[in-house]
Amino acid sequence: MTELVTVTDDGAVRVIRMNRPDKKNALTGAMYTAMAEAINGANTNDTIHCMVIAGVPGAFSAGNDIAEFAQAAMSGGNLVRPAMPFLYALANNKKPLVAAVQGVAVGVGVTLLLHCDQVIAANDARLTTPFISLGVLPEAASSLIAPRMLGHQRAFSLLVMGQPLSAQEAKEQGLVNLVVTPEELDAAAMKVARTIAALPPQGVAIARRLMRGSPDELIARIDEEAKLFGERLSSPEARAAFQAFMTRKK
Ligand code: COA
Questions:
Q1: Most exposed among 109, 110, 114, 148, judged by the fewest C-beta atoms under 10 Å?
Q2: Phi, psi at residue 112, to the nearest 5°?
Q3: What per-residue confidence (pLDDT) applies to 18?
Q4: Is the dihedral of CA 196, 199, 204, 207 positive or negative?
Q5: Total Cβ atoms within 10 A of residue 202
Q6: What pLDDT does residue 250 have?
Q7: Helices and strands (DSSP H and E) totals, the chain
Q8: How far is residue 232's CA from residue 108's CA, in Å, rounded to a whole number?
């Protein structure tokens, strides 16, 4: 079977690539686990100075697998989301993270970007977080980080109203550093990652920690969001939205 997440170390840069192109990189529990292990592993490996998180042509990630959401909703909502170890890994991560975003970026495919230090986007990237219309809630501490990063009103447009952002719009809002063509994306992300990896790693880690604040604050918010998210997951609104997606006619 093809690996749904590939992890490749290229010198001091670890590339974590979501690789489920037939489902637009919708994330399953196994994929979250693989990504969490790759991030946690990099944090205890002195040879890795920087990470890149990437997708495939046309898809950074379509967000959480909706079939898995629906399954969790049917099992009563009191669940430990398979995404949690991944979200904790992002919150606890001490090493710089560069995102290479192309095509669709939905839900956690957008909120994970708030944990990245540089975001390079292809001009075909389209970012959306349709949490509320899906019957669920913003996660990954996005309810804390996005208003700080974008300002409340822009964060509200994104996270509550679900308004999509093009790569250029995301750059104007400060979510993206650089927009390139899809063909240029991987090389552009690696160039930034190698530049960061060449800096003194301890200095980078200390500065990053000072700029990002305490992981405890992020983890407390992730837990608070997850509790409410779990309750919303089994709501009639959420069940209806998942059903509508899974039975839609193309
Ligand atoms: N969960 C499960 N399967 C998903 C998925 C998701 N989040 N996103 C896409 N897929 C699947 C589709 O069901 C389809 O599978 P099929 O070929 O077996 O029918 C395949 O991936 C391709 O998706 P498709 O919708 O045909 O591609 P598209 O380019 O027309 O649209 C999206 C891409 C991402 C805009 C659209 O698939 C979508 O809206 N997905 C749901 C995103 C979402 O709400 N995520 C949760 C956020 S909290």
A1: 148
A2: -65, -25
A3: 98
A4: negative
A5: 8
A6: 67
A7: 11, 10
A8: 16
Residues lining ligand 1, Cβ inside 6 A = 23-24, 26, 62-67, 104, 106-107, 130-131, 134, 245
Domain assignment present for 220: no
What's the CA-to-centroid distance between 180 and ligand 1, angstroms?
24
Asked if the model's pLDDT at residue 220 lies above 80, the reply is yes
The DSSP symbol for 28 reads P
Q: Which pTM does this prediction carry? A: 0.97
CATH of residue 137's domain is 3.90.226.10
Q: Write down the pLDDT at residue 81.
A: 78
DSSP 114: G
Q: Which of 18, 24, 112, 129 to mutate to test the pocket of ligand 1 (most atoms within 8 A of CB)?
A: 24
Structural domain containing residue 33 = 5-182
In a domain, 236, yes or no: no
Q: Cβ(193)–Cβ(8) under 8 Å?
A: no
Q: How far is the CA of 250 from the centre of ligand 1 (A)?
A: 11
Q: How far is the CA of 26 from the centre of ligand 1 (A)?
A: 7
Which atom belonging to ligand 1 lies closest to the Cα atom of 67?
Answer: 2
When pLDDT is averaged across residues 180-187 and rounded to a whole number, the result is: 98
Averaged over 53-81, what is the pLDDT?
Answer: 86
Q: State how many domains the chain has.
A: 1
Can you tell me the distance from the alpha carbon of 47 to that of 57, in angstroms, rounded to the nearest whole number? 29
Rg of the chain in Å (alpha carbons): 17
Q: Given pLDDT bands bounded at 50, 70 and 90, which one contains residue 185?
A: very high
Mean pLDDT of 190-213: 98
